[in-house]
Structure formats: structure tokens, C-alpha cells
Amino acid sequence: MSVALVLVCVWGAVACAAGLAPRRYHWPFAWALIGTGIPLLGLVTMSMGPAMGLIGLVAGAVLLRWPILRAGQRLAGLLAPQEAEQPREHPGE
């Protein structure tokens, strides 16, 4: 078994354990997992090939779904066309 695969398994176990922590620790754990997962994904891709790198990317996205969903919502909000605010009509004027 390669070192990269062992590290990915440890990363996944830590991600599952972080989900069991109190809610106030979820986002700090998520940022730490993202920070360690990106170089680990590069290591897996280099040592085991792009197919395993893609599988690792999907597995990481499944484990860290909320940060990805929140980033997508923010990106959609930034890219959505902003409607110009129209003046409101006051009744009786």
C-alpha cells in the first residue's frame, strides 16, 4: 500500500472524527482539512495517477460538502446580475 493512500485514509478518518466534534469546531476543522487535503490530493495524483486523483477529489468533496456548497452560493451571488433598485411609489401622493 502506498504512503499516499495511507495518508488519504488517515485524512478521511480525521474528517469523519471532525464531524463528530461540537458544531463550533466544524468550520476550523474544515479549513484545516482543506489546507491539508489540497497538497495531499497533489501527492495522490502524482504517485497514483490522474484517475485516482479525481477519485480523491470526489471523496474529499463528499466529506467536505458544506464548505463547497457555501462557496458555490457565494460565487452565484457574486455572478448574479444585480437588479437596479426602483423607487417605490407611496400611496396617496
Automatic annotation (TrEMBL):
Keywords per UniProt: Membrane, Transmembrane, Transmembrane helix
InterPro entries: DUF2484
Transmembrane segments: 41-64
Alphabetized Pfam families for the sequence: DUF2484 (PF10658)
Domain of life from the UniProt record: Bacteria
Transmembrane among keywords: yes
Name listed for the protein in its UniProt record: DUF2484 family protein
Source organism of this protein record: Roseicyclus marinus
